[in-house]
Amino acid sequence: MNGDSSKKLLVVDDSKFWRSLITDLLKDSFKIYVAESGIDGLKIATKVKPDIVITDYNMPDLNGIFLSIVLRKYQAFENVGIFILTSSDDKINDFWAKKSGANGFFSKSIFNSKDELDKFVNEIKVKKFFSVEDYVKSEISSEKAYEIIEERLKEEIYEKEILNLLKYIRDEEYLMERLNGLFGSLFSYESFLALVLSESEARIYSFNSHVSRNHAKALLLSYFEKPTIPKSWHFFGDFDDNSLKKLKNFKKYLVKYDNKEHALLLFENVNYEFDKVINFVGKSLGIVFSTINNFKEYFVASQYDSLTGLYNKKVLMNKIEEYIDKYEEDTVLAIFDIDNFKSINDTYGHVVGDNVLKEIANIIRSITKGNGICARYGGEEFVILFTDSESAIEIVSKIYSKIRKNNWPSLLNDNRIVTVSCGIARYRNGLRITEFINKADELLYKAKKDGKDRYYVSEEVGEII
Questions:
Q1: How many domains does the chain have?
Q2: In this prediction, what percent of the chain has a pLDDT beyond 70?
Q3: Which residues make Cβ contacts (< 8 Å) with residue 155, sequence separation at least 6?
Q4: Residue 453 near residue 339 (C-beta atoms within 8 A)
Q5: In 3-state terms, what secondary structure has residue 411?
Q6: Is 149 a domain residue?
Q7: How far is the CA of 151 from the CAs of 128, 144, 156, 275, 381, in angstroms?
Q8: Half-sphere exposure of 194 (CA within 13 A, CB side)
Q9: How far is Cα 67 from Cα 102, in angstroms, rounded to an integer?
Q10: At what angle do helices 341-348 and 350-368 cross, to 10 degrees?
Q11: Do 291 and 335 lie in a common domain?
Q12: Which of 255, 271, 303 is the last residue of a domain?
């Protein structure tokens, strides 16, 4: 120990030459302590509680990065200034240097320049580096040091594996299967449930739970602090709606990122490794599920009409092309237009007009039920794609029945009713997509001209109705 300064500085280097040189150069500015190795540095640090540690990077027992990792693990050294020295031959990894918790790293050549050395000394004297005397009563053993390093290495590996799942971002279901497999390799559990929650969709995944969808939904949602209300719910995995099983012995983890809740993970009958693993990967899980939900929202925005939730025109045009390629002349297109919609907007306002659009969209969606592709074509126009004439006419007929029976007075707050006109056309080889749509549009125009509230069908589909 040398010097009279109130700040204590620990020099850790396996080279006697460098220990002596650094001591001579800094002894007038700090109380100097020296250690001959990384492990020796830990022992002395726990005894003297230095405010600043200058350590060599390349040492045989414990290098400077690992020494920094171990020291930062203890509250006593959270605010200590740690600086790693490198020789001209050392190639330090920037990632690890930053991850280690070191405040900086620099070449030993700094000691060859008085100006650079003075600048460095002034900087570390001005900054409020300090240790806390009340913590770390006992010496940090080499075994404990290596245990901390091993845990840190595991943490880095786990984080990397979790973040690596983002390459499957376009297939969320497969990504969740991979996540289940990864968790299964890190700790044991009987079943795994996950609720991934965004504004557009809630997705619940079950891996070996065999519980009902209602139980899973209620249980998972109950652990959100401020749950988003999604527009739709989707379930994936081995649910059993006849099951009376109720999950009781489980551990849960609420995934957050930037103070926003993104997912709830629930594991049944987990072993003791769960808490440690989750502590390691919590931040990475936040990044992954935040990215998953952002991708979902961007995807939905690019695919669906924001008001009605139906496919948008861009997707519709692609779907028409796909249907023609796959079903050829079995492809049938129905185009709907709300009658006198401008008058509805002018009379009741655009808020009511939007509600009418959503109501028509909901009717179309509920009647079609996966038997066709539903889209908002633009404005007050909607399109349904079918794969055969018979189902097209049957579904359109049911849509008309539902629209005519709908309680429009409650929505419009008077006795006015809402009607639609429709044209239905069948594809014929050689037609361009625009020509195919125009066939249905011409029939729609005729339905409008002939009194509205009716649908006309091309001769290729069936009778005119």
A1: 3
A2: 94
A3: 280, 281
A4: yes
A5: helix
A6: no
A7: 29, 11, 9, 13, 60
A8: 22
A9: 9
A10: 140
A11: no
A12: 303
- Please report the DSSP string for 51-84 in residue order: SEEEEES--SSS-HHHHHHHHHTSGGGTT-EEEE
Interval 367-384: pLDDT, tens:
998 899 999 999 999 999
pLDDT tens, residue by residue, 317-358: 999 999 999 999 999 999 999 999 999 999 999 999 999 999
pLDDT at 464: 42
| Domain endpoint, select from 136, 169, 203 | 136
Whether this prediction's pTM lies above 0.70 is answered by no
Both tokens of residue 123?
């900087």
284 and 195 both lie in a single domain? yes
Spatial CB neighbours of 210, under 8 Å, sequence gap ≥ 6: 191, 238, 239, 240, 243, 245
Which whole-number Å values give the CA distances from 389 to 20, 165, 361, 457, in the listed order?
93, 44, 21, 10
Angle ∠(409,402,314) on CA atoms, nearest 5: 100
186 near 158, Cβ under 8 Å? yes
Question: Measured on CA atoms in the order 185, 187, 192, 195, is the torsion positive or negative?
Answer: negative
Predicted pLDDT of residue 380: 97
Residue 113: CA atoms inside 13 Å, Cβ hemisphere, count? 8
Specify the pairing of strand 52-56 against strand 8-12. parallel
Summarize the chain as % helix, strand, coil (round to 5): 50, 20, 30
State how far the alpha carbon of 329 is from the alpha carbons of 382, 424, 433, in Å. 21, 14, 13
Q: Encoding tokens for residue 29? A: 């500015």
Side chain identity at residue 353, one-letter code:
G
Order of strands, edge to edge, in the sheet holding 420-426? 373-378, 381-386, 332-338, 420-426, 455-457
DSSP 8-state assignment for residue 311: B
Using CA atoms in the order 336, 341, 342, 343, what is the torsion angle rounded to 10 degrees?
A: 150
Instruction: Write down how long the chain is.
Output: 465
